[in-house]
Amino acid sequence: MELTVVMPCLNEAETVETCVRKALACMVEHGIEGEVVIADNGSTDGSQQLARDAGARVVHIDEKGYGNALIGGIRAARGRYVIMGDADDSYDFTALLPFVEELRSGADLVMGNRFRGGIEPGAMPKLHRYLGNPVLSFIGRLFFPSAIRDFHCGLRGFRRDSIINLGLQTGGMEFASEMVVKATLQGLDVREVPTTLSPDGRTRPPHLRSWRDGWRHLRFLLLYSPRWLFLIPGAVLMALGLVAGAALTFGPVYIGKLAFDIDTLVGASAMVVIGFQAVLFGLFTKVYAAEEGFLPEDRRIKRLVDVVTLEKGLVAGSVLALAGLAGMVASLAHWQVRNFGELIPAESLRLVVPSATALVISFQTIFASLFISILGIRRTKETPVDVAASAAEEAAEAVTRESTPASGPAEPEAVTKESTPA
């Protein structure tokens, strides 16, 4: 079978029959061998029977959520290609051919673009059209090397095996972002075709919740991009702190009527420590995610980890610790000059703050080197080849056992009784 159209469904009695009939009619018109699968997520309005009457196959998905329903529907699909779309009659299921043609030509994922195809009046809330979708799609393109302009279009087609191999896991609305992000990170062929969006045919409110689901999309994009979540903000913060701290260590800095002194130096020290900690968290996340297979391996991070070995990290941390201790000794000497009496903060803190900062950074460096070394310990993982080899060996042993007769007690030899002459 070439194509399966998967529609997630939760109480769509008003529109599901129309959507099924449109998709089946499109396949008949263009000679596409296919089916429609309704991934029902617990409807109580009779949607299931209406879908069956229209010619669809219904699969029941117990786990609630948009992503869970789609994952279940994709697994149940029999087609080589899958096109997914909402069962609310907002997407045009009579115009599936462009998706199929792109898939036939080698695409792994074909996204619809509603902004290129056309959004009818009232089809999309203004908040989504002018803020939510453009902003989240921009962040997705910024964080990941993707050219997709409409990250959240619900009508999209893909090769079933390619998407299943991605191991998609999110159960909510962020499933839409996860598919694009993981496909991009894995280097799949991702394309885009124009599609239209019409006002849905339901009289009840949609399941989508703007702010809640928008935050879930944004959270997913951040968590899958340690570079933008940790590395870049941390590096910027640390650089600003170092520049400000270096300037203020030797005296106050005046910009016009503004005077920056000890208070700013303490703030700069905090910026350095926080920024350095964020950079370390970025490295930790990258190494861990690559080892566990959540993210593809980053060659730059791998080279950095290979170069910055545990021993080098310990040496660097020790050097920083010695510098911090030297600064502390210098501050004690300064105190001795004052006969261990009251100090002038503007003088003493210029020694104490940088020294304390160096000590904090030194121990963070040592602990980080140890932790990254632990993360880098590779576990022996059983590959599919190993599993197949083990199964083959077990089968061969079983055949050998069946073909070898069971050894039992030896049968007694026949005794020939010689006749004794009378």
Describe what you observe in this structure.
- The chain has 422 residues and is an alpha/beta fold.
- The protein folds into 2 domains: 3-223, Spore Coat Polysaccharide Biosynthesis Protein SpsA, Chain A (Alpha-Beta Complex), CATH 3.90.550.10; 226-375, no CATH class.
- It has 15 helices and 9 strands.
- The chain has helices at residues 16-29, 47-54, 66-76, 97-104, 114-117, 126-143, 160-164, 175-185, 210-223, 226-248, 262-292, 299-307, 310-337, 345-375, 384-403, and strands at residues 3-9, 34-40, 57-60, 81-84, 109-113, 156-159, 190-194, 253-255, 258-260.
- The protein has a 7-stranded mixed sheet. The protein has a two-stranded antiparallel ribbon with strand order 8-9.
- Helix 10 (226-248) runs antiparallel to helix 11.
- 35% of the residues are buried.
What attributes does this structure have?
Glyco_trans_2-like; elongated; alpha/beta; 15 helices; transmembrane; Glycosyltransferase family 2 protein; Spore Coat Polysaccharide Biosynthesis Protein SpsA, Chain A; 422 residues; 9 strands; two-stranded antiparallel ribbon; single chain
Topology:
Layout: E1 3-9, H1 16-29, E2 34-40, H2 47-54, E3 57-60, H3 66-76, E4 81-84, H4 97-104, E5 109-113, H5 114-117, H6 126-143, E6 156-159, H7 160-164, H8 175-185, E7 190-194, H9 210-223, H10 226-248, E8 253-255, E9 258-260, H11 262-292, H12 299-307, H13 310-337, H14 345-375, H15 384-403
Organism: Sphaerisporangium corydalis
Family: Belongs to the glycosyltransferase 2 family.
Domain Low-salt glycan biosynthesis hexosyltransferase Agl6 C-terminal transmembrane region: 283-376
